[in-house]
Every structure is written in C-alpha cells, then in structure tokens.
Amino acid sequence: MRGLPILAGIDHVMIDTAAALIPLIIFFIAVQVTHLKLPIGYVTGLFKGVLLTFAGMVLFLQGVEVAFLPAGQAIGAYLGSLEQRWVLIPFGFLLGFLATYAEPAVRVLSYQVEQSSSGFIRASLILYTLSAGVAVAVALGMARIVYGIPFLAVIVTGYLLAIALLRYADRDFIAIAFDSGGVATGPMAVTFLTSLAAGAAAPPGERMSISNSFGLVALIALAPILSVLLISTLYRRKKVKLP
Asked: What is the pTM of this model?
C-alpha cells in the first residue's frame, strides 16, 4: 500500500463507510427477526447488495480524495492566478453543466418524474433544465469570487424569487423543483465544484478567502428550484390553452 499513493488512506475510508452502513444492517436484522421474516434467499441477495454498496462507496470516496479534490483545487488555483480571472465564469458554467449532467441522482429523479407523469414531463426536459440551472449557478459563484459579490445579496434574492414564482408555477412542478435542489448537490458537484471554488478563491501565494470559497453548494441547491419553477410556468400556460 505504501508503494501505491492511490490507496493512501483507504483504510480510514473503509472504516468511515462501515460506520455508516453497519447501523442500517443492524436495524434491518432486528426488523427481519421480529417482523419481516423474509425468505433466506432474499436476505442473502440483500447482503450481497450491501457488500457491493460498501465496495462502491469505498472506491468512490477514495477516488474523490485522490482525484476530484486535488484536481479541482489545482484547476481553480491556476485559473484564479490568471490576469484574466473572468475566464472562471464561462469555465464554471461549462463544468456546472457537465457535472450535473453526469450526476446519477439527477438522472434518477428525471426518469422518476417522466414515469410518474406518464410521459407528460419528459426526463430530458428535467435533466437539461437542472444542468442549465446549475451551470448558471456555478458561473454566478465564480463571478462572486472574481468580483467580490456579497453572498447574502445573491442567496436572499434567489429565495425571494423562488417564493414569488410559486404563485405562477404549475402545482405538478413545485415538489419536483424543491427535490431537484437536493439531488443536484450530489457527489459530483460537491466534490469537484467546491474544490474548484476553493482553489480559485486562494490562488498560489494568496490567503484563502473563506467568504468567497464557500457558498457554492447553496447556489447549486437554489438553481434547480428556480429553473424548474420557471419551466413550470410554461407548462401552466400550456395547460390553460388546452380545450
């Protein structure tokens, strides 16, 4: 393990992952013995799934530690050290879109919405709407770093706008909008984009600005709410025009 830096610290990741899964396993066993009494074949398959989950979480978290976090910080630090720091804004837009488009939880929500609405709300619409919304949010987060925009002014204005949009939004979209804010802040966004912002806020030779390096996740959580509510106003008009 000493000769493989990629595995450095994986023992701690395994311990942390086990600590998260073991209480759930104990709870399931207790309910299985007292109430569920599921067939042994089902329980065996479930525990095989738990082992796969454990392995997947360990590999993902280790990959985040040795790849996503250092890469995000290095890219952000490089871009933040350029004289044309404004390039952070379009770069953040691109990465925000790609990170959300690749987010597994976003795709699951999109497919569930299409299935639950019997195809009335297309999965592709939700997927691209969330990706575009997060892209704008990350670009805005980069603009905060470049131009020193106060965080409170941005976040308060955003939530006031979300509350105002509730009056005009289609009811079928309101719950979807607020769920979207949760799924968009998944592991892809939190690991890579936040490290990117931290690196951009502290270029080489400069002290990190706490006020600028954090807050991006809050913007990412807010952006899907606004984007889905905006799309829902179009669907509401579409419903009104139907005979």
From this structure: 0.80
